[in-house]
Task: inverse folding
């Protein structure tokens, strides 16, 4: 049997998305390719290990892969990433979509006959409620990604199965923002009363995805069963079982012992290297839109002084950081600028080398000793005494945080800063960070997409959800908006690069590395295409077992 | 005897109240905010207004005395509240996890007792010989090796040698006794090795003392068999401190399986404690700590009763006090 999607699905590339902002262009209609050429078999149970229990099931309120991995096969988004080309979107709940000539109105035409897992038919009202819930969450509901939809002026029904979204300004990246894997569509009838209680969808999953949640036992198992009412091609698997196994070594052992079929989260290289040698196991590591940055709290002295922030950047030998932390946390990658590795919006080597310390990125031949001498001079100019005490807070359970902080603390000592690491448990760490009760933090940030509006909007604006450093910079925010609304691809590319250059000048964040997560599965698992984004293509509807 | 038990029960209740106050206060004063954790911690900066809404919804904006009063009142009716994380009644969460932890504790204790006491007796009986030295070395090794390390070595060794890894779905004992015993054997062994070493060393030390007593010499002079001398006369008189040790270790194990459960992914109480505290799940953390304290109190009471039964002098001293 050939795998396939309904022929009325459309695809849109990032470049096409840029073009659509300027004119009324209906989405291109072409069938996407799904791991073609393989004969899929029906049936079987895919056993997956997750890194722990999902804190809850409310995908809109969450930001962890623990929730997303269990939720993704159960939910649908309006559009989804093309597994054959991460730079393209294909139809999901929306079978087609139009963008007005002025780029300010986007109309989604929904598939007919779509039902939620409880049997309720999907209507435009469900889409409107879901998107409104993300951008303007009801009281008591927290929406970490509301900024993604901040450009929406209004959402109205254009018919029972038509949703009309009006934007305040044209936004070429809008389709990617609305299709973020976390922006799933929930049933208004179920969700609205729960939201009124301040509870939300934390305890249940009711989606339109290819699988439905049929069993959930904290600490033991989360079982999904194929949803035969799914509007697309029925999933091949009968069931997916997620087992919470915290340790990477234990997850690796479970895979070797064939207790599980797959695990999609292996930061540590040693574990992946062990699995690499085991016959019958397929493993891979790919860069993901997850960066590790050193973030100073600019509300605290002396980090309000740009010279001190630049000195921090100059002190860090990034190549050494990547060599040390890479094998521990998967922080193997680097980019030239703020965009992920390989981005078409990357800066040039000459451009990045003008910023303090960035010439120590792998292969750029920077002089670490000279950088550190300059850092010492800058600290002196800023009046920072020798052996000034700096505490880097970090959480102890994730190597990307803990080991990054330890490495950076060691490097800061080379410029006369008495840096120590304060390892906190998760609850204490996030409370201190949220309340700005810290000097420095080495933070790993996982994005649910890699378009500029996602990366900059969430990571590099004053109002972005990841502004842990508490800076305020209207000029940068305006530049972000300017690039976001620019319809002409060439002009936009220039603006995106200009934004990066201006941001890097501020040293609000010191970019260290990008993380690539490993995944491994038995060779009997077929049809799963790993995209450079841990959240994308996790619906599992095309996965099958060659058992 | 009744007044002895009553006295112990009253002390137990006072202890539990003290634990309740301490755990309630500690959960509030340690750094970390339940509202932050419930607001999708890690997803980005959450505004103070959003946090206030969450606190209000959870009742965490009320005075601490009121919160404690409400909780203590509920606890008095055996209602430990609802977990902020799982949404289930805490008592239900604990009830589902308790059998796994209890089974590991019982199995570990059985392994430790069944092997530890004979090892200690043998070691004492053949003190100074190669048997004693080998057993001593093993017991020191057992004490030195942390149970999580033993667990990891077991897991990796079993995978490497037999392609065997820990199961993912744990069968409760009453559903499939044989399977359940087989599944939990390795975690129990990892934990039990330390207890085994402790018991063996304690037994050896006591037995060395007992075997030098006059009544043992008398027993030997009467021509009793070595088994009767060592076991009937020696061990039965030297068992009291060992029983105390077993009792204390047994109850302490309930709260001491955190890492072993994590290594083997056993859905027991230890993992629940960690998840509750890390997520600042106040009702769950308070509830589980109280239950564990209750187990320790009950364990100590049981040891006291066994002690009184084995040694009437203790019972009489307790009644006179």
Result:
């Amino acid at each position: 049997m050939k795998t396939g999607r309904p022929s009325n699905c459309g695809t849109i590339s990032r470049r096409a998305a840029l073009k659509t902002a300027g004119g009324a262009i209906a989405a291109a209609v072409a069938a996407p390719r799904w791991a073609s050429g393989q004969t899929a078999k029906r049936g079987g149970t895919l056993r997956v290990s997750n890194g722990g229990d999902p804190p809850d099931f409310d995908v809109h309120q969450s930001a962890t892969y623990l929730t997303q991995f269990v939720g993704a096969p159960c939910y649908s988004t309006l559009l989804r990433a093309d597994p054959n080309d991460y730079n393209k979107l294909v139809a999901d709940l929306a079978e087609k979509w139009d963008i007005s000539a002025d780029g300010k109105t986007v109309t989604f035409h929904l598939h007919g006959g779509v039902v939620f897992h409880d049997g309720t038919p999907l209507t435009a009202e469900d889409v409107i409620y879901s998107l409104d819930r993300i951008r303007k969450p009801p009281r008591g509901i927290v929406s970490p990604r509301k900024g993604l939809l901040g450009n929406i002026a209004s959402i109205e029904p254009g018919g029972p199965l038509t949703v009309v979204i009006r934007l305040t300004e044209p936004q070429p990246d809008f389709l990617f923002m609305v299709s973020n894997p976390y922006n799933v569509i929930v049933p208004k009838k179920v969700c609205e009363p729960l939201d009124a209680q301040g509870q939300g969808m934390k305890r249940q999953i009711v989606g339109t995805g290819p699988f439905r949640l049929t069993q959930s036992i904290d600490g033991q198992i989360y079982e999904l069963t194929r949803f035969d009412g799914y509007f697309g091609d029925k999933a091949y698997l009968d069931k997916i079982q997620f087992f919470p196994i915290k340790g990477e070594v234990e997850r690796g052992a479970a895979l070797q012992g064939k207790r599980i079929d797959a695990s999609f989260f292996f930061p540590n290289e040693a574990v992946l290297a062990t699995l690499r040698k085991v016959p019958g196991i397929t493993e891979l590591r790919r860069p993901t839109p997850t960066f590790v940055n050193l973030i100073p709290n600019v509300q605290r002295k002396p980090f309000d002084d740009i010279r001190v922030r630049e000195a921090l950047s100059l002190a860090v030998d990034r190549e050494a950081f990547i060599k040390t932390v890479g094998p521990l946390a998967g922080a193997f990658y680097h980019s030239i600028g703020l965009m992920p590795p390989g981005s078409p919006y990357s800066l040039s080597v000459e451009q990045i080398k003008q910023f303090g310390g960035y010439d120590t990125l792998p292969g750029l031949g920077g002089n670490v000793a000279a950088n550190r001498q300059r850092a010492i001079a800058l600290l002196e100019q800023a009046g920072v005494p020798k052996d000034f005490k700096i505490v880097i807070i970090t959480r102890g359970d994730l190597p990307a945080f803990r080991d990054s902080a330890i490495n950076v603390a060691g490097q800061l000592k080379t410029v006369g800063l008495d840096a120590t690491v304060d390892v906190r448990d998760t609850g204490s760490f996030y409370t201190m960070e949220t309340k700005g009760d810290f000097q420095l933090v080495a933070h790993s940030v996982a994005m649910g997409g890699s378009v500029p509006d996602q990366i900059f909007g969430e990571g590099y604006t004053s109002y972005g959800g990841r502004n842990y450093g508490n800076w305020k910079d209207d000029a940068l925010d305006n530049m972000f908006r300017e690039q976001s609304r620019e319809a002409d691809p060439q002009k936009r590319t220039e603006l995106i690069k200009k934004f990066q250059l201006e941001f890097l000048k501020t040293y609000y964040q010191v970019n260290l590395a990008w993380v690539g997560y490993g995944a491994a599965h038995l060779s009997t698992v077929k049809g799963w295409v790993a995209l450079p984004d841990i959240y994308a293509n996790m619906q599992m509807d095309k996965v099958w077992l060659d058992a | 005897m009744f007044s002895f038990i009553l006295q112990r029960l009253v002390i137990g209740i006072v202890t539990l109240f003290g634990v309740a106050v301490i755990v309630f206060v500690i959960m509030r004063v340690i750094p970390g905010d339940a509202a932050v954790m419930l607001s999708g911690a890690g997803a980005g900066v959450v505004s103070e207004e959003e946090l206030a809404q969450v606190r209000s919804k959870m009742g965490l904006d009320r005075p601490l005395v009121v919160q404690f009063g409400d909780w203590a009142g509920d606890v008095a009716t055996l209602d430990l509240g609802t977990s902020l994380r799982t949404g289930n009644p805490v008592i239900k969460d604990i009830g589902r996890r308790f059998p796994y932890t209890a089974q590991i504790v019982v199995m570990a204790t059985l392994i430790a007792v069944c092997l530890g006491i004979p090892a200690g007796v043998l070691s004492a009986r053949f003190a100074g010989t190669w048997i004693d030295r080998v057993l001593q070395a093993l017991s020191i090794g057992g004490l030195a090796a942390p149970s999580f390390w033993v667990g990891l070595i077991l897991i990796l060794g079993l995978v490497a040698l037999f392609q065997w890894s820990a199961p993912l779905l744990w069968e409760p004992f009453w559903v499939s006794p044989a399977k359940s015993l087989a599944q939990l054997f390795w975690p129990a062994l990892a934990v039990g090795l330390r207890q085994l070493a402790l018991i063996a060393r304690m037994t050896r030390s006591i037995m060395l003392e007992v075997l030098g007593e006059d009544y043992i010499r008398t027993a030997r002079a009467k021509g009793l068999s070595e088994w009767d001398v060592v076991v009937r006369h020696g061990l039965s008189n030297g068992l009291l401190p060992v029983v105390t040790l077993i009792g204390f270790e047994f109850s302490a194990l309930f709260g001491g399986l955190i890492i072993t459960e994590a290594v083997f992914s056993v859905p027991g109480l230890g993992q629940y404690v960690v998840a509750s505290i890390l997520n600042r799940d106040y009702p769950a953390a308070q509830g589980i700590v109280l239950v564990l304290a209750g187990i320790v109190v009950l364990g100590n009471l049981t040891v006291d009763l066994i002690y009184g039964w084995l040694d009437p002098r203790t019972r009489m001293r307790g009644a006179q006090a």
User: Anything to note?
Assistant: The longest strand of chain A covers residues 281-296.
